[in-house]
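A reminder from the course coordinator: this example appears on the midterm review sheet, so study it carefully.

Given structure:
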């Protein structure tokens, strides 16, 4: 009953504030048709990412975890014409669907999808001087969040924003003895940001069509 209510409220909010968008709708449809898991951010969360990127005046965005490019399209739409979004995906099938969705959204020139394991691609981004990024969205496998965050810090500017999704995990995050490597990944990340003097961070738990979860908002306050 509760989850049904959260979903209805998400629908109410989305109907009011997130108008239907042919490219975003088509991206979800194509992702479903290709059998991709239904784990993209919800529409109102996608719009939150979009608004945060605009508030940030982001010109360079990095995303870790593309799936079918639903969040990438939201973020890409926040960029100015000379902006750039690099998005990382390890699954070739997801990448193929994402590329088509990005092209359909007219973002082919702004979005650079890199196929490969993020832990292989991130050192390449450092080596090629791809940063600093104004906003980094971490939304891939959760056990590697601590490593992704270390790279994100290295690739951010002072004033950069790092957003990490799925940090509450149905409340399981408070179980210190959880055998789930995803929970332990989030917990190690939380310990890292708590002790990291170069950032100021908070986390917000959320309920909605994606259940009970949450996201971390990390402001980089000093040079890496
Ligand atoms: C939660 S989904 C991303 C959802 C997407 N950000 C959205 O909201 O539309 C996570 C994605 O990360 C990808 N992924 C998992 N492990 C990865 C890795 N080691 N490197 C790069 N991508 C990875 C998965 O294949 C999946 O497509």
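Designed residues:
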């Amino acid at each position: 009953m509760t989850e049904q209510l959260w979903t209805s409220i998400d629908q109410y909010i989305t109907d009011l504030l997130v108008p239907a968008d042919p490219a975003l709708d088509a991206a979800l449809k194509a992702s479903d048709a290709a059998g991709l898991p239904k784990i993209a951010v919800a529409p109102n969360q996608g719009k939150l990412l979009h608004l945060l990127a605009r508030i940030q005046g982001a010109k360079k965005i990095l995303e870790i975890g593309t799936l079918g490019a639903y969040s990438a399209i939201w973020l890409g739409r926040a960029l100015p014409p000379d902006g750039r979004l690099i998005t990382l995906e390890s699954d070739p099938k997801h990448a193929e669907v994402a590329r088509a969705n990005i092209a359909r959204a007219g973002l082919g020139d702004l979005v650079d999808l890199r196929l490969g394991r993020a832990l292989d691609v991130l050192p390449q981004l450092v080596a090629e001087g791809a940063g600093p990024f104004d906003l980094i969205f971490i939304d891939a496998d959760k056990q590697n969040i601590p490593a992704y965050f270390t790279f994100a810090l290295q690739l951010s500017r002072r004033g950069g924003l790092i957003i990490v999704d799925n940090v509450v995990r149905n409340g399981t995050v408070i179980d210190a003895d959880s055998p789930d490597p995803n929970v332990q990944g989030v917990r190690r990340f939380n310990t890292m940001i708590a002790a990291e003097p170069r950032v100021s961070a908070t986390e917000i738990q959320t309920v909605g069509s994606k259940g009970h979860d949450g996201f971390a908002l990390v402001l980089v306050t000093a040079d890496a």
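Residues 2-220 form a domain with the Rossmann fold fold (CATH 3.40.50.150). Residues 39-41, 65-67, 70-71, 88-91, 94, 117-118, 139-141 surround S-adenosylmethionine (CB under 6 Å).
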